[in-house]
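Researcher: I need the complex structure. Ligand is pyridoxal-5'-phosphate. Inputs:
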Amino acid sequence: MRINWNEPRFGSEELKEVEEVIKKSYINEGPKTKELEENLREYLGVKHVILTTSGTAGLFLAIKADSLIKGKKDFEVIVPDLTMIATATAVGWAGGKPIIVDVEKEKGTIDFNEVYKKINEKTIAIIPVHVIGRAANNKKLEEISREFNITIIEDAAGALGSMYCGRYLGTLGKVGVFSLQSNKIITSGQGGIVVTNDDVYYETIRRLRDFGRMNNKEFFHEIEGYNLKFNDLSAAIALAQFRKIEERKEMLLEQRELYEKRLSSIEEIKFFPYILGEIPLWVDVLVKNRRDLVNYLNQNKIYPRECWPALHMNPPYRDHGNDVDFPVATMISNNSLWLPNGPAISKEQIIYISKKINEFYKNGT
Ligand SMILES: Cc1ncc(COP(=O)(O)O)c(C=O)c1O
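Model: Output:
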């Protein structure tokens, strides 16, 4: 049987929630969306939660709001090289220029020494990415934000439920964004969660997302906005998923622990460190001979996934620099692998995958 990298799982709880929405015929943004927003607000301990169509849309709304609030048209936003392309794409959507910096070796998160070098009068924001649940250094972030009056927009797309010093990632900066896409801890297929404690950012993002609509005048639009609203069908699925978040956290921790136990004696494999409170959304490891290992696993019907190509390797961002300019992101991007995990993967499968990896390195392939 094929072992795929990461797949969502749904049960009768999701069906029941969706059935309720269909029976009521209210599938636009309505009571289920509100209920999910309220649940997330309480869970994360934030003042405002806004649901939107995707994590990318959430990042876009946060950056657009920041530029409008600051009255900046010609602006730059600093992003790490090691991330999914959406982090940079969202800056472009909002009319800004992404400025790419390298990441630190230990965790693959944004390197603050590099950030300092790129700050100038056009910089309005930094987007630290909490790479699959690993916190970007938050003390440094807060210092930079204060020193240069730069907004921190957290890309916590893969970090819902993960914590740093007892606080949820995504709730530490001005605005935080999570993704509900299908490989995340909970999913609605597609979807994004925007959180903030700031009333002005909240109101700006809310309006931008809803055609620029004023609250009390249904068809009066004070600013030119977008239609990036959520819908109750997706909210129904996400609500049922959300009730499983604590058990999902446990499951992800156990899965990674099992891999670590079975693979840590292999010299050619290195795990990234996670600290207490951080949740490993996926199991990423640095491996020797990645291509050969992947081929070997594929022959055994096991399908891990290679890490994102670093931003600078993608055609739209090639003029930002080359591998020499971003040595750490290049090294991680070229050598790391995401092993199969998530709600569709059993303990037995992890033991089997680990056995095959052990076999590969023992045979000196
Ligand atoms: C780090 C990161 N940022 C942004 C996104 C974009 O989120 P979405 O797919 O919900 O648009 C993703 C998606 O996986 C991601 O991994």
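Model: Summary of the prediction. Residues 54-56, 83-84, 86-87, 129, 155, 157-158, 179, 181, 192 surround pyridoxal-5'-phosphate (CB under 6 Å).
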